[in-house]
Fold each of these.
Amino acid sequence: MPRNEGNTVPDSGTEVPRYAGSHHFFRGPSLEQVSNFDIALLGIPFDSGTSYRPGARFGPSAVRSASRHLRPGYHSELEISPFSVAQIVDAGDVAANPFDMEAAVVSIHQGASAILSTGASLVSIGGDHSIALPLLRAVVERKGPVALVHFDAHLDTWNSYFGASLTHGTVFRRASEEGLLIDDHSVHIGIRGPLYDRLDLVTDRRLGFQTITAFDLQRLGLAEVNALILKRVGDNPVYISVDIDVLDPAFAPGTGTPEVGGLSSRELLMLLRGLSNLNIVAADVVEVCPAYDSAEVTALAAATVAYELTTMIAGIRSR
Amino acid sequence: MPRNEGNTVPDSGTEVPRYAGSHHFFRGPSLEQVSNFDIALLGIPFDSGTSYRPGARFGPSAVRSASRHLRPGYHSELEISPFSVAQIVDAGDVAANPFDMEAAVVSIHQGASAILSTGASLVSIGGDHSIALPLLRAVVERKGPVALVHFDAHLDTWNSYFGASLTHGTVFRRASEEGLLIDDHSVHIGIRGPLYDRLDLVTDRRLGFQTITAFDLQRLGLAEVNALILKRVGDNPVYISVDIDVLDPAFAPGTGTPEVGGLSSRELLMLLRGLSNLNIVAADVVEVCPAYDSAEVTALAAATVAYELTTMIAGIRSR
Amino acid sequence: MPRNEGNTVPDSGTEVPRYAGSHHFFRGPSLEQVSNFDIALLGIPFDSGTSYRPGARFGPSAVRSASRHLRPGYHSELEISPFSVAQIVDAGDVAANPFDMEAAVVSIHQGASAILSTGASLVSIGGDHSIALPLLRAVVERKGPVALVHFDAHLDTWNSYFGASLTHGTVFRRASEEGLLIDDHSVHIGIRGPLYDRLDLVTDRRLGFQTITAFDLQRLGLAEVNALILKRVGDNPVYISVDIDVLDPAFAPGTGTPEVGGLSSRELLMLLRGLSNLNIVAADVVEVCPAYDSAEVTALAAATVAYELTTMIAGIRSR
Amino acid sequence: MPRNEGNTVPDSGTEVPRYAGSHHFFRGPSLEQVSNFDIALLGIPFDSGTSYRPGARFGPSAVRSASRHLRPGYHSELEISPFSVAQIVDAGDVAANPFDMEAAVVSIHQGASAILSTGASLVSIGGDHSIALPLLRAVVERKGPVALVHFDAHLDTWNSYFGASLTHGTVFRRASEEGLLIDDHSVHIGIRGPLYDRLDLVTDRRLGFQTITAFDLQRLGLAEVNALILKRVGDNPVYISVDIDVLDPAFAPGTGTPEVGGLSSRELLMLLRGLSNLNIVAADVVEVCPAYDSAEVTALAAATVAYELTTMIAGIRSR
Amino acid sequence: MPRNEGNTVPDSGTEVPRYAGSHHFFRGPSLEQVSNFDIALLGIPFDSGTSYRPGARFGPSAVRSASRHLRPGYHSELEISPFSVAQIVDAGDVAANPFDMEAAVVSIHQGASAILSTGASLVSIGGDHSIALPLLRAVVERKGPVALVHFDAHLDTWNSYFGASLTHGTVFRRASEEGLLIDDHSVHIGIRGPLYDRLDLVTDRRLGFQTITAFDLQRLGLAEVNALILKRVGDNPVYISVDIDVLDPAFAPGTGTPEVGGLSSRELLMLLRGLSNLNIVAADVVEVCPAYDSAEVTALAAATVAYELTTMIAGIRSR
Amino acid sequence: MPRNEGNTVPDSGTEVPRYAGSHHFFRGPSLEQVSNFDIALLGIPFDSGTSYRPGARFGPSAVRSASRHLRPGYHSELEISPFSVAQIVDAGDVAANPFDMEAAVVSIHQGASAILSTGASLVSIGGDHSIALPLLRAVVERKGPVALVHFDAHLDTWNSYFGASLTHGTVFRRASEEGLLIDDHSVHIGIRGPLYDRLDLVTDRRLGFQTITAFDLQRLGLAEVNALILKRVGDNPVYISVDIDVLDPAFAPGTGTPEVGGLSSRELLMLLRGLSNLNIVAADVVEVCPAYDSAEVTALAAATVAYELTTMIAGIRSR
């Protein structure tokens, strides 16, 4: 893709104070401020799929606010100036109904489809993990089934909670059952913590997932884990889903179901960068729960992950 | 009622440290530890009716914990030793389904009915305010319609949110429509803050409510407001519902929809005591949202209110 | 002023979740979204005039966020629907230079003038109190000298700090010296705390101020204090400046120089409403320092004060 | 006492930033920096007498830090410049043994005696309330028995906790038994909350105390309560003991045993000022527990109370 | 041991919300709810041995609360379903006297002995580290001297503080002197931070300890450190004592004497799992101080460590 | 340097509680308490060079307070008893003017020169990073140009913010331009996060810096990075500047411009120790912003770094 002349870029942090002005992601433009765009960040403030600490409904707002910390000009590890090579916009929030999961799923699906229908790429900011189902549906409608690269402390392939089929702990079983994921090319990274049952892992494998635990990462190292992911995914279209609880609670206390023994933010960023040559079709960052955050550390981690994903996609689109 | 010989009383705070031992309300017995009881405190950890900050699902647990601060032996203003004149128990929590409002309403109704069917009085600890509908249903089934004395910053008589008929902001319109409240004997105290619409107050009056705002209280004083409430209620059976946001956010920051300009905790306690001669048939304390609390001040306020209500009912029952 | 047909109004809190969508004040429109407007709220994120705890630069952002709590439709005490009788907009933030007080003063002056030149009224959200000097300059240029109604714990009429003539503690001495205030019609309300020197009060009186302390308020009551303010101000054009530290730290911990013994938020709101028949030409709310806030109580108090002031001005303009 | 020429005064807050320099009380001199002194503030970081939340050992350090907020030059309500009429010093901390109550009591007694033996007045900063026993012993040794004016949520006249005779809840029973208090001239103000037993109040009265509850204050008003205290105390030498939990948790969350329904800081300051003509021989401020504080509001309240007491004593000594 | 038929297992987290119901460790049964048991968790809310930040008395309560996060069904790294192979119970709290160390030591000793006398294994939750002395006494009475595997930032082998022989910093010198530890088979892991004196390490070695610092761990890696521990311990009976401050303050801020440069929670969990073939006779987790915690990260780390230890012991007992 | 007989040492933490007594760095003496000294710690409470979150003006006070956690007697990794081999003092704070950068720079320069002129070494505690310019000027005046070893998340070699030439993000460009740094011997360690522009790195290299990113550290390991630093620095005189944001926000949330993906505190301490044979002429620790800290973790990290640096210098001076 040629450089998008006339891009609307973020305000300069050396000319307009970062605590002033735009509240959009990365202090960039909103969808209304541009005529066309390449990548949209979409807020999905919805947490009715939460089993423990609720509050991820405030996630998009917190991540936008924390993204003011960043200087989005140039990513020196990826060697990309994302706003130069792509028009990136904040597409606002989906007004998902907090009292009706079914209605919310429809709204999220529609919101995502509206963006994808323009040919733009989508990076969604949750919200709890249940939002990944309508997001995957919208993506798969246009791109076909995807390989899921799933960073999380939890498998999220349980069958149901309290009789509910769609929650933040069952989302990828539903996705798998609906045929949204390519068989045997998906992978969980960062899994840890006890399980409800010994069969949880068996079921998960039968659904087509490979699991790389946080402890595997400690034993194998970053390079080896990166190779495992690349091998698993192959050249399939990829959806990256980052549950911020993949990070240790030290790095991301502001989340609904924290689990000790997790990744450092440095490990997560380096693993993500190892995926920059994949065919990434969409991505999400979910489960930021600001009421439990402290000094914005979780929201900042999520904003940085969103920036990584956005920059990676900008790089892919501009090749 | 004669003194209930053989009462199981709370552990002595001068013999067993208050940070050790029982986690039940007021460090008293659980329902399983007694053969019969006069008053039950019931936790209702449910917050799927919340429109803004969720988290009242952790309310019962926080109020139990904060109730360890209290020395429940003797209430010197009411001159009652509640555990001496009544067997008070912690009836545990209703396991309300967070993903299904309808199922939750049924569970709460059943949980309350199970207690009321023994002849005991019920003090419920929420949870968001939507729980008051099934609680009122259970109470009215046994006692007939009630006069509602409602302490709150908000009317809670809106019609619907996002199409949902039962939420924490619509609960008393539903109650009124179902005939659970005696016409023209209910009253809101502590109302303040802007409204969605000029008609909100008109509708509210048409539903049979009188409104005493927080500013009325400032102008009229405690004694006058107490007289207004007593006059409004008459000798009808009374249900007292205390939304902790009736307190100013200074006194109760840990709630979902705080509103400045509210009551002090001293005002609330004195207003409640002024109701101690009413025919109180049940009560609730709702909307404690611990994630926004600080040093337990909100949970402690709620625990103290629960203790006031429990003591008042103990006094009424023992007359 | 006739009702401004075609007003752009805030999103409905019963249709779009309040934690989603607009981040503008009261969830209303931005200046860009309307063709003309009656009242503008202007953020002034500047705190280089702070002597103790800095951080009021994050005030406008925090007040915007907290204003999502409000339902701005109808003010039932003032009996005004502000967005129906006036077009209210969020005019964004002045990009004041944090490293150059002189440059910042010019930017703020220009930002305010740009709004006032349209004939609109201005409600500014700070920022530390030093911003009141350029704001007064801009107002006085168009309206002539004003009577200042100043709610604050501190006089803010000291001469200098560390040799600096303009700081948040000297702002009204500068204003007085520049002739921006009408002689003997200005008043401080809420003053308390020890002073640097016995002469501070003498100087202050000589500069033309009357002082009503927080303790005077306790002794005299709200009605009497309101009468004193009205008498002092007369029918002069009025500038209302609310330093959020006029509230007790219990009600507003998130501020730079808290002082115990202050007003409750109920007192402040009622005092403000008592001024609704004055000729208010502009107003500000300053000194919200979010890093010291807890559960948004201070930001919410400031947002509510801003809503009061905005509604009062809407009422005055629509008469 | 004539004005003490050559006083060492606090650093000027307009010349040396208040966040820099001296960490002594009110940014004044330490005992080592002056040749003689009139009033000493003594830190007593000891909390081994605490029954619930420990941590008052960090009280003196937090109150010193918070006292930097104050401008100690001139008290405009009392019309006294305390550092001009008296040499006020920070006498440091007593190194009380946290593992041995008996040894700690001896150290505190000695520390206080060392100051009193110079003829200076003593204002002690706790620490938990158990420290008042050795403080009273030291005072009474020199001045004879005193009338106690005791601001607190709790009576502190229980008999024992877990068999221990001296704790923060039994301190004034011990003081009474030792004859440190003049019969029938002591008074508790601010009492509230439930009691262990109906007899607690009877015992308390028998020990010679009058009780003015927080609710009495609401009913009677400040002027009437002040009159009651003055009448009770008469012209006896007075020891003022302020447990910071006399304030409502909204105003003082950072304390070990908070109790809702308490005083506002404005009420407390005005009650104290009403005592400025008494024969105050010593005073303490206790039970600040910084781990539960927020934005220093509790420590600032305590520092302000300490400043009031110090200024009152300076006024008395300079008459 | 064969599977204990009729086990009482924790409530299912997919049927009863984890924020509702049981407050026992891991949401399992209390001692009263079972007829016999294999492993007991015992709370020891005692912190009178603390030299700096007190508050570990609230540790057991916080760890119980945080253990609701866990899904205790199946430990996938150890491949054990602990509640299937062993009856695990919450034995409640020892009511240790906060005002009398000697009495507290007796109570703790008796509490532990009562459990051990049934043949069950004991996992204790503190409380400060001084509790390890009576725990070791009770264990050694039944099992003979033990090899201590001690995870901590500090040696805890100092001689005395302020003349006190038993504090949280002297506990293992006392244990060594009493012959509770097998000579030359004990090991500290995670030591760091400056020492009082150069001789501290010499004395420590003479008492029979080996020291593996946090920096040794960085240099040697997990596998090598695990080998060192196994070699040191041999096949002796092992007591594992985990001071939560072995973790870096990033992972465990809520503790009394934090020390930077510590372990990550992932490192700690993996080191513990490396010990799963040892002859573990008892264990403790101490020094959780909730007042300094944030979003439960410390309490959750401690609960997870307690779950690891419990599962390891369940595995050992079921072989 | 021979052992400094008659040194004044910190209070013993086993005799005087660490929460009592001295508030000086490491609980050691102040400058006034000794006749001469070898190393001075100097507080520089100044933050007017801050571009985002202000508040580092409270850094020196917080670091002093947190340094009470340490037992400064013996550094077992470096095998040095710093207070035995050198007289270490707290030189208090520079009273830098918060309203005038130029004046502040002069004050800081003078404050540092006054210490250096005695022949003592200087460890400065900020304050924001802009203070490093006057500090370097003072050092270079006496020692000539230095090699800078700069631990930071950011380059701090930007040209200007809002037209200001000296801010915390431009300080080392100014230093380089002034010839304060030896060409091609300086190094940044820990750099990460996006940049304003692709040229930022080019400019930085042209100014004579080498950059070792946080990700380089992950890839190369501690030993390799240490070798790189030693090679870069050679045997030149070294100034070590530690911006606490070199640590990940998990380890240091309390800072103005946090950046995820940073160092652990263990990594930082080990890297520092690897420099203990360098010719260190001065050092600073900056950017601790306590308002965003939690449980003192950031301040404790900074205090520990200051202790490392002080001990290293003590070792160098005593050789």
Amino acid sequence: MAIENPFYTPEVHGPYELYSLGDFPLDEGGVLPDLQLAYTTVGTLNEARDNAILIPTWYSGTHEVMQRVYVGPERALDPNRYFIIIVNQIGNGLSSSPHNVDGAHAGPNFPKVRISDDVRAQERLVRELFGIERLALVVGGSMGAQQVWEWAVRFPEMVRRAAPIAGTAQNTPHDFLYTQNLIDAITHDPGWNNGAYADPSEVVSGLRLHGRFAAVMGWSTEWFKQEHWRRTGDFATLEDFQREFTEGYHEPLDPNSLLSMAWKWQRSDVARNTDGDLQAALGRITATVFAMPISQDMFFPPRDVAYEVAMVPHGELRVIESIDGHMGLMATDPGYLPQVEVNLRELLAIER
Amino acid sequence: MAIENPFYTPEVHGPYELYSLGDFPLDEGGVLPDLQLAYTTVGTLNEARDNAILIPTWYSGTHEVMQRVYVGPERALDPNRYFIIIVNQIGNGLSSSPHNVDGAHAGPNFPKVRISDDVRAQERLVRELFGIERLALVVGGSMGAQQVWEWAVRFPEMVRRAAPIAGTAQNTPHDFLYTQNLIDAITHDPGWNNGAYADPSEVVSGLRLHGRFAAVMGWSTEWFKQEHWRRTGDFATLEDFQREFTEGYHEPLDPNSLLSMAWKWQRSDVARNTDGDLQAALGRITATVFAMPISQDMFFPPRDVAYEVAMVPHGELRVIESIDGHMGLMATDPGYLPQVEVNLRELLAIER
């Protein structure tokens, strides 16, 4: 049975549309009945249908943060020039998710969804709804980057350019274990009750712990030392930041939604397209790829991304320097976006 | 009331002596009645009493691991040449600790102990029991390094040389939050029961989570990617390693013991000796200091140690290269000990 959650509404995240894909077969088996993708668009699709940019979302994020941080007039992702589609990943609370579906697939019975399911669903949305055969760019951060990589490998003919930010094509064992800690923070809370809670507030202790786990690896050691949390809002002390920002951000989220995404995050792997051969998978990419890890990222470190992008025929490593680490994705570091903008402009100017 | 715990015995950790300091006043206030330090010695104190080396212990460790990994004939820490004293930190399960004291200070009522309390107690042991006025070297890793730093600042006239490995003089905010996660892993377990469990096995779920969280920051991303856990024992899969090593290591530990040490770890700060002035504190050090952070350490990164050792008059930064990260302290990387040995030999040869 669906749970009413005032957080997952247009009032909080801004307007969005729903695209129904009907009964959607999943890579792990089974079917998600009446799969709905929540998306929004900005700008206008041109007649040639060749100015479309697709942006998938990251863990716990929605289209709202991607639009607010990354899209705008006179920006690289300029809606006056491009038709920008931002799609919420399955399980994120706005697209079909444990708390908003009914019946046999609700809550703890929500089926296992993979990055590849998201990308297959997004491909249908892009093609069926907008008649787009080729995307000028696919760009996203973190789990959004995982979807970008999958797009470039699975549908090479449809992806002209790809910009995975702070994310890998094949999740690493360390990242798997890190994400497991996020999962454990929730599932160790007795209030979680194997997913059968009546209201997310019963799991508030686990959600807060989840947030505190995420913060320690999310920012960087130096970010905390230099007290850059002061830049993220009006916090008098680190304790205030932790309570109001770190815990406050996570408290309204649906625990089963986070668990659905975390399971997906752990298993992201483009080599599933090529019988486990990562080099073969990345070698299939025809897009021009600018891979942008963040220098101080503690769980998607530049080393791991450098290893992968070296196998991409037209791939380049573009490290974004920031002591904000992975959370730099939210552009809390004023030096972050200018670097991303320069790279995206250069990438979009490449006419290969 | 004391809890029988078969883990904290000579059968597991090898023989040790107890030195009683009587009622010991603590820096946080109050008194620890009949404080016992568990220690062992190797080698012989010479007539001049100037060949003594002191080794304090790290979080969850005892004298056993320090002796096994770092001490031996023809090693830098050679018992044929030096009189080596290994002292268990307060709260570690062998020295006075929550589970082994009786009465009003038992279990959850064990008083707050600081690094400075350990060092004051160790100074008495060294002086009263052995008549040593000056130590040839104080060396330790992690929380052991925190004690080394405190020794060099608090008793400069007694410390001729100091070698803090993988630890800082002043704990960082990031490290505080990381340690808080370790604490939370235990205290969020309902079995912990505010410390009033009857047996540590009631907290096994929290202890396992504590272990899994420690592992993610304890090793490095690259260590997991290269599957170096295969070097730590006979494990067929990463899951086996996690269950048998990561969880298995933590399961027999006393939860309140870990919490006592974690609280201490979080608040390690030599600047408490100088009204918060870190530069003044480190400037007091007369010892020759070789500070040895481990290159891939995720919570005591070289950057933080470099910042501190630059303020030490006769201090040098000696980074130990290892992808094993912080856990490299256990010498799982065959390239680790040779680097430490070279530095310790060079340090011990300096006659300033």
